[in-house]
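MOLECULE: protein
FOLLOWS: sequence and fold
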Amino acid sequence: MKAHERISQAFEHPLRLPLNDHSRYILFSDCHRGCGNAGDNFMKNEFLYLAALHHYFQKNFTYLELGDGDELWENRSFRKIKDVHPQSFSTIAEYYQEGRMYAVYGNHDIVKRNPAYLRKNFRTWRCEQHREHALCPGITFYSGIILQDAHKKKDICLTHGHQADLLNSTLWPLSRFLVRYIWRPLEKLGIPDPTSAAKNNTRKEHSEKLLTDWAVKNNRLLITGHTHRPMIGTKEAPYCNTGSCVHPAGITGIEIQNRCITLVKWSVGTRDDLSLYAMREVLGETICIDEYDV
C-alpha cells in the first residue's frame, strides 16, 4: 500500500466533530510521556504542558491529542508512565469527564487502537496517595478525526502523520524492536535514531512532502504531528503540523478558534522580579479557514 493510500485509510472511519464560529480546539501531539528516567523527554516540559492545558480548560477549549501521547516503544509499562505523571493524567481525566478530550494514536502508541488495551490501562490513574481515580473509561483512540466545517468551506483532517512513513506504519513492529533494543541504548551514547522522522531531516522532509501532496490532491486541510516540526500551511500547501511537547525550548501546538488556525509556543518567561512563568506566544500569522478554500 502506498503512502497516499495509507493516509486516506486513516479517514475511512473517522470521528467527526463540529467546526463552527464557536468551536475552540487545542491540538498537541508527540508528548512522549515516559517513565521518569533519563529518556523521558517530556519530563522537563511537563509544567509547560500543564500550564497550557489549565489555560485552555478555563477558556473552554477541547483538547485533541494527535498521537504519540505516551512513549510506548521505549517503555513497556503504561502503569509506570501514569505513576510518574499523575498531574498530567489528572488534567486529561478532567477534560475527558467534561467531554472535551479526543485523541488519535500515533506510531509510538499504536497499541491504543486495541480496545482491550484501553479497557486495561485507561480505566483509572493513581494519585500520590495511591488512590485510584477515574481516567478515561470507555475512551476510543481514532486513526483520524475530521472537523466538519459548518460553513462547508474546508473540513480539517487530523491524524498523527506516521502513515506517510512505511517503516513507522506498516512496519511498525520492526521499528519498535529497533528503537527498544538497538537505538535507545545507542542514543545514550549520542547516536541519533536514523529511523525517526523527528530526528532525521531526510525522512522528515520526505514525510512532509507526502502529507502535503495528499492534502493538495484531496483538497483537504491536513494537520498532523509525527515530524516534530511545527508549521502552518498555505493555500497552495494546506498542511500544518503541531510540532511536539519535547523540544528543549518549549512545547508547540495549534489553536483552532473562530474558524482560524494559530500556531503557538509555550516556553519559560522571566518577569522583572526574576520569577519564572509559562509564556504563550504566537508563531507566525493566524490564518482563517476561508483562506485555504480553493
User: Anything to note?
Assistant: Residues 201-217 form the longest helix (17 residues). The helical segments are 3-9, 46-58, 78-84, 86-97, 115-121, 172-187, 201-217.
